[in-house]
């Protein structure tokens, strides 16, 4: 089963081609629309995914594994959403994997300690969640020496030889879509004159591609002026965001929009603007439940945000682990070749963020998760003894 010849079940391919997902630079409209949302009635139940239809044929050698998960911060709801989907995928396939979680609280030292602890415990695999390998080289070498494979989500270390696979959404893709939604909508709203945009940024190298995409695309819109940029403090994300945005509003009285690179910063920026009574729009990324509520609130300045299919990402991460346990290596560049779906949601489509089909019940997954069962069923044929 060489990695170069492995493919996804045909049913999955067809669901992906039908999904409402477009490539870089496109704000995608929805396939379906629901009036229910987090602020209204309960979201539709997630589709039932079970092992009964074929995944029960997965070799028993790949079951009952222990996976050590190293978080950047468990305060990030998106990280918890990813782990919930990992657990759902494991349960759906009858794998009965145990996920041990460690919170590095944004500290490189704590992430190093977490990896070392998992190596000493002899876990079957380690997953770095929004944690770069740059600060972990000695610990990853210890893991390799112990025969423990290391995987990543949002580690942006797909070329690190000590990492088996980093299956992560393409950060420049959703950033490009959001940037062009932002610049184009501002152009339509203001047919003449300069348009001032300020960036609430981060110095995390793993999110650098988003910054590069926004700045690069801004050059294609002559009236867009990036007037300022400042990095948040990860020890005080909300507070530092509010201070940054307060400074922007004082310094640039004609500011038209704020773009926030890191999810938690988006709602904090919107709250600061709302409190000041300013007419400034906020564009941000996957801003968790708080962002959904803000987007659904017509009075809140949060205007648009992409949502990434975290369930799709986690199911395919489990598939990558199974591939490794089966003695083959998953594609290092699969995140580019079979990218995680996403959509850009606006005030007009915010009520479609119902959590339908999502393991954690938050946000959005393509086709309400109907792609899950065909994918899981295919694992029985792909990973027998």
TrEMBL record:
<dbReference type="InterPro" id="IPR025997">
    <property type="entry name" value="SBP_2_dom"/>
</dbReference>
<comment type="similarity">
    <text>Belongs to the bacterial solute-binding protein 2 family.</text>
</comment>
<dbReference type="Pfam" id="PF13407">
    <property type="entry name" value="Peripla_BP_4"/>
</dbReference>
<protein>
    <submittedName>
        <fullName>Sugar ABC transporter substrate-binding protein</fullName>
    </submittedName>
</protein>
<dbReference type="InterPro" id="IPR050555">
    <property type="entry name" value="Bact_Solute-Bind_Prot2"/>
</dbReference>
<dbReference type="InterPro" id="IPR028082">
    <property type="entry name" value="Peripla_BP_I"/>
</dbReference>
<feature type="domain" description="Periplasmic binding protein">
    <location>
        <begin position="76"/>
        <end position="297"/>
    </location>
</feature>
């Amino acid at each position: 089963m060489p990695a170069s010849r492995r493919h996804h079940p045909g049913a999955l391919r067809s669901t992906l081609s039908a999904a409402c997902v477009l490539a870089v630079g496109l704000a995608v409209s929805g396939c379906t629309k629901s009036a229910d949302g987090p602020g209204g009635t309960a979201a539709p139940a997630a589709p039932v995914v079970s092992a009964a239809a074929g995944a029960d044929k997965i070799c028993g050698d790949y079951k009952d594994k222990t996976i050590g998960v190293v978080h950047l911060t468990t305060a990030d709801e998106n990280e918890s959403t990813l782990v919930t989907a990992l657990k759902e995928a494991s349960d759906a396939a009858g794998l009965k994997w145990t996920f041990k979680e460690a919170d590095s609280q944004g500290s490189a030292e704590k992430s190093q300690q977490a990896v070392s602890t998992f190596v000493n415990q002899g876990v079957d695999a380690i997953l770095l969640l929004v944690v770069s390998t740059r600060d972990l080289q000695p610990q990853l070498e210890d893991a390799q020496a112990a025969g423990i494979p290391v995987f990543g989500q949002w580690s942006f270390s797909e070329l690190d030889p000590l990492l088996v696979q980093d299956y992560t959404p393409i950060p420049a893709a959703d950033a490009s879509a959001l940037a062009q939604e932002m610049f184009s909508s501002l152009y339509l709203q203001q047919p003449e004159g300069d348009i001032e945009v300020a960036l609430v940024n981060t110095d995390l190298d793993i999110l650098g591609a988003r910054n590069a995409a926004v700045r690069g695309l801004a050059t294609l819109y002559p009236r867009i002026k990036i007037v300022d940029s400042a990095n948040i403090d990860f020890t005080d994300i909300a507070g530092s965001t509010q201070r940054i945005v307060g400074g922007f509003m004082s310094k640039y009285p004609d500011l038209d929009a704020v773009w926030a690179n890191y999810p938690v910063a988006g709602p904090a920026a919107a709250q600061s603007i709302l409190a000041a009574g300013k007419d400034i729009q906020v564009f941000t990324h996957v801003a968790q439940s708080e962002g959904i509520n803000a987007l659904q609130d017509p009075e809140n300045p949060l205007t648009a945000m992409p949502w990434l299919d975290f369930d799709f990402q986690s199911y395919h991460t489990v598939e990558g682990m199974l591939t490794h346990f089966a003695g083959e290596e998953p594609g290092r560049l699969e995140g580019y070749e079979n990218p995680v779906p996403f959509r850009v949601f606006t005030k007009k489509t915010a009520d479609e963020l119902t959590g339908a089909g999502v393991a954690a019940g938050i946000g959005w997954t393509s086709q309400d998760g109907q792609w899950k069962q065909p994918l899981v069923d295919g694992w029985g044929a792909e990973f027998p003894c």
